[in-house]
Amino acid sequence: MKNLIELIPAEYALKHKILPLRLMDGELVLATSNLQIEEIKGELEFSLEKKIKFEHWDQDKVLAEIYRLYQIEDNKYSEKALSNFEVVENSQIIQTEDSDINEPDYSIIQIVNDIISQAIRKNASDIHFESYEGVFRVRYRIDGKLVEYQSLPTHKKQAIISRLKIMASLDIAEKRKPQDGRIRMKNGSNTVDIRVSTMPTVFGEKVVLRILDRSKRQLLLKNLGFDDDFLEKFKSILILPYGMILVTGPTGSGKTTTLYAALNYLNKPDVNIITVEDPIEYNLKGVNQSAVNPQIGLTFSKMIRTLLRQDPDVIMIGEVRDSETAEIAIRAALTGHLVLSTLHTNDAASTIVRLIDMDIEPFLVASALKIVIAQRLVRKICSHCKEIDNSASRHLPQLELYLNKLNWNLDMNKTLLFRGKGCARCNFTGFWGREAVIEYIILEEDFEDLIIARTSQKEIRKLARKKGFPTLLNQALKKAFSGITTIEEAIKQVAVF
Q: Of 120, 114, 210, which is closest to residue 163 (Cα–Cα)?
């Protein structure tokens, strides 16, 4: 039965009052109390690629079994949550290759809307539509991990891709070049922006949708998982009249979310905030946001020069990508502006050395830089199926290595570790949501001396440890020992340190 209920999502089962019972000779038997269930029979057979047969049950019995088998809490799925997200703008209706030219193919529209709606409900950050030889599959990225959602019939591939292009106002005839666009979808009062990217591959186009659901995004500093000590220090730096704040880490580590949360904290009627981004991920009310466009010469460096004439108090630069942008940003931070930006480096100490490698004079770096934050994201244990990890002893050899590195003295026999058992709410992964793990260096006078002397990142890191600034490993293990994440997840994200 467990394998059968994975065929039909809990929300869909509740909405249509259906319950998978058995699979016999390729025919799926469903219990239902829905008298109009025949209307979606074709939809189910198409999406599941199986013949469907219904058995009519009493409604109370169907609902009771759905709640029991899917482990659903009472009132978990509201009517609003069960309804689909719809495209805000009226889109064209397309035809599949085998449909009558005068007859709109509503099944394609429904398939695409269902895939996107399901991704939003599952808290996915991305949807991948991928073309392979004889296969057209859909994958979701949930909490940083790609999971396969379903495979679609290959003869529907082009119609689905065309539908996505139409929704994003892209050229459906252009299949040889990458394209970028946006979709806006709405469910009641909840509006979701979706960034669309297409790319040609050997077996057809690949389409990736980045879901930007602000209602689920934690755009407040207090919600990012920072400890109270760091939060107070960070806020004290954010109110400085000038200086540079850098957030660093790999792609997908939450850097932009941290910057947006910082801008929200600074966003007041008497503060002029201007951003230069590529692209703009969220519209922030009260913040002047602009996007670069290299095709017409609007690069980061050119846009920064322009916005400096716009009387800004706070400047947010999406990313420092080259020496020119770095130098202009540094000089802006020294001339009465608070500058926030990101950089791709592994840790806080290497960020300082990286700026010098970009031909920025060390004395400028030492004067302008106020704090460097290195960030990772760890998956949080699902609160619905959290349990004590009775097999924690398997971690001991690796843990002892890291604890010795940190000079921690812990009695592992008295330390409880946790894990997620897996349930319907977390898609049986044991995790739900993610939280930031950070290390930081506040650039005090003794760091300035090291920077001006062009010392190595090893010496900078050594001084940071001496002054008590935490490491990524330190912070990740703390979250594991406090039951927020698992030991495996903590080590996996920061083990290189």
A: 114
CA atoms within 13 A on the CB side of 161: 29
Beta strands in 222-368 (DSSP E): 243-248, 273-277, 288-291, 314-317, 338-343
Six-digit token string for 317: 């630069």
Which residues partner with 195 through β-bridges? 182, 210
pLDDT tens profile 365-420: 999 999 999 999 999 999 888 998 877 656 666 666 666 666 666 655 567 889 99
CB atoms within 10 A of CB 45: 13
Give the angle subtended at the CA of 238 by the CAs of 234 and 240, to the nearest 5°.
Answer: 125
326: left (phi over 0), alpha (psi -120 to 50) or beta: alpha
**Cα angle for residues 402, 408, 414 (degrees, 5° grid):** 100
C-alpha to C-alpha distance for 445 and 467, rounded to whole angstroms: 12
- Distance (Å, rounded) from C-alpha 320 to C-alpha 488? 32
Assess contact for 430 and 420: CB atoms under 8 A.
Answer: yes
Give the span between the Cα atoms of 261 and 65, in whole angstroms: 42
Percent of the chain with pLDDT over 90: 41
The answer to whether the CB of 368 falls within 8 A of the CB of 333 is yes
- Structure token digits, residue 429: 């992964």
Q: For residues 310 and 381, what is the distance between their CA atoms, to the nearest angstrom?
A: 45
161 in Cβ contact with 207 (< 8 Å): yes
Q: How far is the C-alpha of 179 from the C-alpha of 170, rounded, in Å?
A: 7
**Which of 340, 380, 351, 345 has the alpha carbon at shortest distance from 225?**
380
Contact 493, 376 (CB under 8 A): yes
Residue carrying structure tokens 């003794």: 446
In the 8-state DSSP scheme, what is residue 84? P
- Burial of residue 295 (CB within 10 Å: 0-12, 13-18, 19+) is exposed
Q: What pTM does this model have? A: 0.73
Whole-angstrom Cα distance, residue 18 to residue 4? 12
Cα–Cα nearest to 87, from 112, 53, 121, 58: 112
CA distance 407 to 401: 10
DSSP helix/strand/coil, 422: coil
Question: What is the pLDDT confidence band of residue 69, given thresholds at 50, 70 and 90?
Answer: confident
CA distance 164 to 103: 19
